[in-house]
Amino acid sequence: MLTPMVAGGVVFPGLFLLSKNTLQRLPQLRWEEADAVIVSARLVSSVQAVMASTAGYIVSTSCKHIIDDQHWLSSAYTQFAVPYFIYDIYAMFLCHWHKHQVKGHGGDEGRPRAPGSIWAVARGYLHKEFLMVLHHAVMVLVCFPLSVVWRQGKGDFFLGCLLMAEVSTPFVCLGKILIQYKQQHTLLHKVNGALMLLSFLCCRVLLFPYLYWAYGRHAGLPLLAVPLAIPAHVNLGAALLLAPQLYWFFLICRGACRLFRPRGSRPPSPCQTQD
Where in the cell is it found (predicted)? Predict the structure, then answer.
């Protein structure tokens, strides 16, 4: 178990440092540290997403029996990905820190920052990214032990499908980078936004009804009968995993409405929306 975790602990922070140093030192680029940190963090998240979704596809398509079939990648990649979630909490904090500095809230270069300012930034980070930090913590402290110990080698198909939820992450990361560089009105941003909306809907929201349907087909049950046929704690776990996906999907839909709304048009008034 330790080998994949050590490998993940080396690969993800190492890729981040390599990307950041490359962006800062290449003569053709010479990016500022803030830009290099933010883009490098998005790059590592995208790489992890591609690796996770690829592993998930291999596992889910290899398991013909959705309960008993096993694939070595299911446990190996789960262990490999644990350090990523720990690293990413710190990487997100670095991004928030540099954005805070760019906005002029930090001390000037050469001047010491006010005492306790780092704690103020940390509080702002936790306030802004609380749901994402909580999600990462749950993945490490709850989902990882459950997938390694509680499953006892069963349900690799379902774990593979859950790994494929990461398909939408590269589009999310690219969208954030384009917004960072004020490219909201480009064709690339609009195409990426549509792909992000579609991939998030299919791979994160509709994934859970699909998993229920897959189990129902295996057990010979109609979809609506599946929640009553499985243990309550499984339904509770699925609901807890689905809830933040629905919230994030709502935010994506709201952003898409702003993106594709014709310029100069105003959102409907409350009276109009009630008709």
Answer: Membrane
